[in-house]
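Service request form, structural biology core

Requester: graduate student, group of Dr. S.
Request type: structure prediction, single chain
Budget code: on file
Notes: please return the result as structure tokens.

Sequence provided:
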Amino acid sequence: MDSVRNLVHGAGLGLRRGFIGEILNAPPTNVGFYEVAPENWMPIGGKYGKQFRALTERYPFVCHGLSLSIGSSDPLDEQFVRDLKGFLRLHGIKFYSEHLSYCSDGGHLYDLMPIPFTEAAVRHVAGRIRRVQDILEQRIAIENISYYAAPGQEMAEIDFFNAVVAEADCDVLIDINNIYVNSVNHGYDPGAFLRAMPAERIAYAHIAGHYVEAEDFLIDTHGAPVVDPVWGLLNKAYDWFGVFPTLLERDFNLPPLTELLREVDTISQIQQHWLMDSRKQVA
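Core staff response, request fulfilled:
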């Protein structure tokens, strides 16, 4: 099972319908790959469906899920996973990731809820991840989420995350902004959290902006530019783990595409800095 690190490269961008035509007409040269939420594209036909197919035929894509609800006590939606498998194959999409969270309890909750950090939850979630991987016949990556409360906590967030990943034998999608947001909201060292992640399982990363509600309370919105401390964490990640594919997320309050591409450029510049540094060390 190939890791996405062998399948996509460089700096990526989350694809939004609002600028799909612009990308088709003038393809950005600095975007190495694109990411979509499969739930938003699996049922789409017509003009957008044709435009999407035109892009997936030309560029590398990955999928980042929103609704699998991997931590829920509801039955796993295996039909969705099978439909997803067909979608990935139809479009030649390289990889699939999901959030370490749940979003259903007898119906969809329309939010990503934190899973209790317990041994029982580790076993439950890891078993569901393994089942998804069996159906898809490929590894998936699990993302560390932002959260604002930790009900029933028996272990630290990083210990819970690492235990799930190890028992499920899956890959990791690092969300750099989520680490920073949680570190402020829950009072821990973001660098120590990042350093403790399993380097050999890192597939790719997300980087995004957030909203400052108060000095000690940040809200993960994906609706603002990336801030300097988050860029700093990305630098640390490349220093410690080597350069891996990294994607800019922007979900609302969308600026012009040119503004997003400047942030994609920043990712590329940081990647090139560390790639050049590693070459110097080898030489």
